[in-house]
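Contributing new records

If you add data, match the layout below exactly. Sequence lines come first and carry their own label; structure lines follow with theirs. Keep one chain per record. Anything else will be rejected by the validation script.
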Amino acid sequence: MRMSRLANVVLAAVLAGGVAACDGDPADAPLGAPANLAVAYDGAKAMVTFQPASGAESYTIQRQNVTRSASVTYTGVTATTYADTVTPGNTYSYSVVAVRGGDVSGASTPFVLAVGEKRTNLVNLAKDGTRTLSKDTLYVISGPVTVDSGAVLTIPAGTKLVGDTLAGVSYLVIRRGGRIVANGTAAEPIVFTSMREPGNRRRGDWGGLVINGRSNCNFPQPCSGEGSSGTYGGTVQNDNSGVLRYVRIEYAGYEVSPNNELNGLTLNGVGSGTTIEYVQVHFGLDDGIEWFGGTVNVRYAMVTGQDDDAFDYSTGWAGKGQFWIAQADTLLGDKGFEVDNNETTFDAQPWTDPSIYNVTLVGRNGRGAAGKSPVGMHLRRGTRGDVMNAIITGYAYAFDIDDALTAAHCGTGDLRVANTLASNLTSLDDPDADANEATCRASAGWSVTQVADAQLTNPFNLDAPSFVPAAGSPALAAGAAATPPNDGFFTTVNYVGAVAGTGTPWYAGWTTYARN
């Protein structure tokens, strides 16, 4: 059959049109990237907007948290706007690609968004008040802030609180009967620090944290806390003031008046129902952790860069401790331990009589200015207690023991320091003439103290220290360590000092060594 000339023309036109249609079909055109990406924070969400890409069926939004090195991808987005949940205090980078079937476009030009921190003042919690903070908000401790009896302050992991440097002395006080529940983690510690920016922070920027409990004290009760921090004490030995776990306290301490100071962490008559573990006090003006009476137990505690004493306990503290580290700064730092029973009445009761195992005390190792006490442990004013499995290094003297009643307690076995290694010293004992050191070290409870290098890996490094004993250290030798009581609190270990010779040190990851 033969087509007419007209039919041939029509068919050719149709075919030509079909080819033209195929050549211009948008479905076959390259898929372009979305344009004009913009992101704005409205105080609650990050609002992502962009222009559509021709031929796109959906979009994939790629978000990187620059602050935390974490990424999220949102797929199947069909609109050109998207509301994203973000955390204040973080910086994010966004990009968008277009998707059509199995085709994916190139990425849009990235957009970087810095989300400012939410900031609010922490306020007093009156009786029966409760408050739970949020880790996406920066809390300012401005002036004295109190949690009164019956009130509970809950602080989640990752929360940051700063002391106001412009409001006079700023500090947080948990009153008798009040509670703080600060449950951090190694990945997200809770940080109390200075309001100043990093690089400008300094010791004494704010007043620190004070907890007042209803356990014992050996001054006439109610005992009165330093720095106008309120009254403490009582007869409730198992009093519960809450939890401190994975908490850092930085650039704190404040001299209200001579011999009337706030410390990094002050524990006034705190009871054994309170949980305190994994706590660092860093670069403080007065003492790191100071106990005035009480029965609270503390483990995994670290004090670094302190101006005064690292660990100071008195006034009848009779709790337990294990795994403590102190490291003095180059130019500053007083004693590793300063210990009293009662500063005016040496035989006041209840006695200062704690039980402490596995301690590492690192002094200045002969560096820095004179004028500060060079003693690892200063035991005086009638104290009792046990300190076992300690490493003392880098002080001029390991021991200074004052007052006849203190020495008498060595003779009765009520004051013991044993299974201890001391090194990098001018001499083991303070060279005064009272002979108390000789009396104590001749007693049975002190018979295992040695002058021997514990061979710690890098204890004097202020930027990245390691308190791990090297292989072959006498701290790891069989029989070197005393076995702590099996009472549910202590961990049974076979080494001297605060850190094992293997495994990840307990202080790794959540602590800081920044000096400003």
